[in-house]
Design a protein that fits this description.
Layout: E1 11-15, E2 18-21, H1 25-38, E3 42-45, H2 49-57, H3 59-66, E4 70-71, H4 76-84, H5 95-109, E5 112-117, H6 122-134, E6 137-142, H7 152-165, E7 169-173, H8 178-190, E8 194-197, H9 201-205, H10 213-217, H11 221-228, H12 230-240, H13 244-252, E9 260-262
Parallel strand pairs: 3-4, 3-8, 5-6, 5-7, 7-8
Antiparallel strand pairs: 1-2, 1-9
Length: 263
Amino acid sequence: MVHPGVSKSKRRVRFGKLWVDSLTLAEALDEIEALVVAGRGGSVFTPNVDHVVNVERNPSFRDAYAGASLSLADGQPLVWTSRLLGAPLPEKISGSDLVLPLIERAAARRWKVYLLGGGAGVAEKAAEVLTARFGVDIVGRDAPLISLESDPARDGPVIDRIQRAKPEILLVALGAPKQELWLHRAGPRIRPTVGIGVGAALDFVAGARRAPAWMSRAGLEWLFRLLREPRRLSRRYLLDDPKFLLILYRMLRTPRELRTRVR
């Protein structure tokens, strides 16, 4: 039996140029705890179909994923696709799925937590909700302007505030690929803090409407979001993400032994 705080070997499944760890939610929480206990920092990303597509054409995004400590499947399409590849992932673990059980564990372990990102007032509201529900120690709430590319004038003050707060866990809600790129470049400076990209999770904690559970189980969260924000998301979901089918075709032609690995 592997106890919390001790990392174990992980099977990984390949989707094009992006690797995903084959973990349950409970195992993912234990692996995050192992990162905290190890005291070396780290980053946790939750890739979906859109990430798989964009990693193909964005070298910086690809480098960020290559340096991630954990990569957890965000979305039923990746879970279903893994079965076609002969390497089934056990379940979907989105940033939104991860936040509440992680905060519960943080409160139990007395870890300090820092919230970064979200719209105006989102981090503050999320902090109120999480503190009231779990009694967790939220040591920072920040929604700064952060650039996609490295910008010392903007990154520096944010990193300084995180260093002073000394959180064990940093939840970064900047959206992809910004949150992954930022964690990749800031990670060495915020160690031993473990940074986790959580997308819209803080918005949901603060009260924003999430896709119904049946749509999530059916892999239709993308449709829910598209119907709510068609102007912003139509290109992503209708033009870009269908390229995932080409990546899947390429992977199905890849020898089975090259579709998985252990680390």
